[in-house]
Specification:
homotetramer; 207 residues; mainly alpha; 8 helices; 69% helix
């Protein structure tokens, strides 16, 4: 097809645009925490303390987007070609990243509300599954179309494929579990984020 | 005129600034979806489901801005010179891009309101016509002033001119139609966006 | 002093950061236009039309920041050195640029309110005087400390100094006038913006 | 460990992402100042004047983030290597920077409210301690892992360590003091910011 030609600097420009979206989405998270409005007899201290679900959601989403940013960069160094559909898949992945402030705000608002908490956790688990799924699509497409550096060791490629499939399975599992036990689902989501804080495996090359 | 001199890196810096505006406008879209406020007996699930027009408008505008970003980059590679008015036309084009979160928010708020839906679709069609028109102006001006790479095949230049004129005609048609049949107008707008997801034709050069 | 040493790439990085602030401030303007909330019997069309002061303020501020962006770039190409105070003056200038969405929102809210319009125009004129003053300070400081390219023709340097002093005088005049005749003050501000749309004079060098 | 390998351009890309977060956080500050809503008999002038705590908080936080931006750049020029944990520490530092609009908004809202002012100052002092602490962690970690340029004079390294420890002690002191005398705590915080406006000491190298 006509759109498969090579642009040596193309991945750099996609990275710059993606970095912009990452930086903005991560910094917008704070906008969703509204200043509490207290009147005369109420305590601002208490009101600020009652915002703990918002702080928790802020930290969780900030770290998640931060990790995606670091991983996006590592991954894009493995790509040597791009095409139009690859570009569009990246736009869809960024759409999922830019969506994250919304489930974050909902989680912050309803985490301490017993009757709505489960719904908020469900939306948040969905909000994390979406970028993980977009990421997997980018990776599978890039492999199918030969956009990945050919000198990469096949076992490293298989390792990444396995890792991305597992992430999707775990986020999907957390989403399903959130219909039964939202608390456990949230724990899985937090655990996965902590796991991703560990250093990623270095790329291995053939020969 | 005095402002016609050549800056080899000028288009790069315009692209960097434009990319910034694209990245911010695309990421701000989520800010317009407010967290639903439900009280005791109401269901957050239902409230989140009732936001479907906002999700629809978010996806449509995100994809639209994403496509403009990709096309802006392709187009600017064809320019070899800039001048002051070209710069100002690009500022006006970016003004139309940065305006999109507003009609998007209005569409998200009123799409499921039978008595106001038509007005919301009309504003949205206008919101899409404006950047298409700004884009056409940039292209026609660049051609008239010889800012476009001279090695480009004349039939490719004519092809792009025709394509941009057609886009404008279709968005203008959708805008006019929205006074009669807002549903059909919206379908045209969605159809155009889906069409733009297809890979663009590659530039052809003389010789 | 210790901080006067030469960094060849320093102006590039200041420009990149400044471009970021310009791009964000210009794109945030739209956030200040709230979606109108109409109920059953009211018309969304009318509500959207009643927002005309907001659209007017949006266009005026967008063009103003766009022109500052273009000029910032032209000016910074004339600087060959930076120092710490220069950096801090640029931060103060950016603080004035980043402040503009606030007077813009106030103007959009109160321009069609006869009893508050004058105050809104006054704040807006002040909002435009601040970056013009910051700009003048950067220029005068850079000249006094020898940060400007020495090959620049002295008459060109004098021309710019005169132009920046005149801008400040006109914005200050508009601010003072806004206490007597806010309508005329706004007309001056709009006129100045239109003037700045004209191409700037090209730098002239010695020899 | 596997993640200790050298990336010559790695610090550049971290800087670009960090600059994005700085630029967005600094520009978002204005969003937190809401347009005052006055009705017929009230005065917009008075309402705008009553927002002085918000303007004060805006300027203070803008200058603080601006100084961090300038210092971040100076510091990152001293690093010659990065690793995964270094990257994550920078993400945590940026999380503290991106959090600043929240305590700024709270300070702007409650500084002129005698019964809540102390709490607002306390949150603001905490908001400034967090990035100072993140900064210290980055510096100590980079030194411990040999990520810093080895040609740097040991006394300069010790000078920076001392300076960062002192900053943390002073912000922590202001935080503690804010439980007793919020006014004095705020004065310390303002004084520290003014001190940081002074030019930093230039790096000294061995030999």
């Amino acid at each position: 097809m006509a759109d498969e030609h090579i642009h040596p600097n193309e991945t750099q420009r996609i990275e710059a645009f993606s970095d912009g979206v990452f930086a903005i989405a991560i910094t917008l998270l704070i906008i969703e925490i509204g200043v509490p409005h207290v009147t005369g007899e109420q305590s601002l201290s208490t009101a600020l303390r009652d915002l703990w679900p918002s702080y928790f959601a802020y930290v969780l989403s900030f770290v998640t987007i931060g990790i995606y940013w670091a991983n996006h960069h590592s991954l894009f160094r493995l790509f040597v070609r791009t095409d139009h559909l690859f570009l569009m898949l990246n736009v869809f992945f960024l759409m999922a990243i830019a969506f994250l402030p919304f489930p974050t705000a909902v989680l912050g608002e309803y985490l301490d509300n017993p009757s709505q908490r489960d719904t908020a956790v469900r939306l948040y688990a969905l909000g994390l599954l979406l970028p993980a799924f977009g990421w997997l699509c980018i990776w599978l497409y890039a492999n199918a179309r030969g956009l990945v550096d050919e000198r990469l060791a096949p076992e490293y490629v298989r390792f990444l494929t396995g890792q991305y499939l597992l992430s999707n399975a775990l986020y999907a599992g957390a989403l399903l579990l959130s219909f039964l036990e939202a608390g456990v689902a949230l724990a899985i989501v937090v655990g996965l984020t902590l796991l991703y804080l560990l250093p990623p495996r270095r790329p291995r090359y053939v020969g």
